[in-house]
């Protein structure tokens, strides 16, 4: 019941309603290790108020969670982030950000279900955490692109150096980005959509 005594349940805000021109939708997952910027990317690019499940980090995570490079981080995603972006007037992407700590990775299987593709966010200070992430996507058969999130204090490498270090095949796109910037995050998603389109054209997308 609202403050006027009505039993009417308020609907979604006008800005959160699905555009009437939308004809198709796709589920995209944004994955990566702890603190690489997944929640930031979803929040920066989503056209609706994003749903987040961040909780304050406590002493319980000391010695369990690897927060190297993210010592100032005080909250962490424990389930998922959710947002939405219209790529065209007809195509809408639903964005699901995964939790970063390995103790929450059991949730990933459900988030991967039905995903058309994925963005793997990478922090060059911790390249090693990306291997398990990409391995899980490969096991599930989820196509992905790699986005190098530009942290101010992170070392910079040439794209081909990163390709070699991450053991990526030549066909997988790698793009640099700033997850805080809407335009940059949108460019990453457009790169993924072009990659998925190329796979569909060659019959590689199932």
UniProtKB/TrEMBL annotation:
Record SUPFAM superfamilies: P-loop containing nucleoside triphosphate hydrolases (SSF52540)
Alphabetized Pfam families for the sequence: ATP_bind_1 (PF03029)
Nucleotide-binding is among the record's keywords: yes
Keyword vocabulary terms for this entry: GTP-binding, Hydrolase, Nucleotide-binding
Keyword flag Metal-binding: no
Family: Belongs to the GPN-loop GTPase family.
Designated name of the protein: ATP/GTP-binding protein
UniProt source species: Streptomyces massasporeus
Lineage, uppermost ranks: Bacteria, Bacillati, Actinomycetota, Actinomycetes, Kitasatosporales
């Amino acid at each position: 019941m609202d403050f006027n005594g009505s039993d009417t349940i308020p609907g979604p805000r006008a800005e959160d309603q699905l555009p009437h021109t939308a004809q198709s939708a796709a589920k995209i997952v944004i994955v990566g290790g702890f603190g690489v910027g997944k929640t930031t990317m979803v929040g920066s690019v989503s056209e609706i108020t994003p749903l987040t499940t961040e909780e304050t980090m406590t002493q319980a995570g000391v010695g369990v969670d690897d927060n190297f490079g993210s010592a100032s981080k005080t909250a962490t995603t424990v389930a998922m982030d959710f947002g939405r972006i219209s790529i065209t007037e007809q195509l809408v992407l639903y964005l699901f950000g995964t939790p970063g700590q390995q103790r929450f990775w059991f949730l990933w299987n459900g988030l991967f279900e039905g995903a058309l593709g994925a963005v793997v966010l990478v922090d060059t200070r911790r390249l090693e955490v990306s291997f398990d992430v990409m391995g899980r996507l490969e096991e599930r058969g989820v196509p992905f692109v790699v986005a190098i999130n530009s942290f101010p204090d992170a070392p910079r490498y040439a794209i081909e150096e990163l390709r070699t270090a991450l053991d990526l095949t030549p066909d997988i796109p790698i793009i640099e980005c700033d997850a805080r910037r809407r335009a940059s995050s949108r460019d990453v998603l457009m790169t993924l959509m072009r990659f998925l389109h190329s796979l569909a054209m060659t019959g590689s997308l199932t």
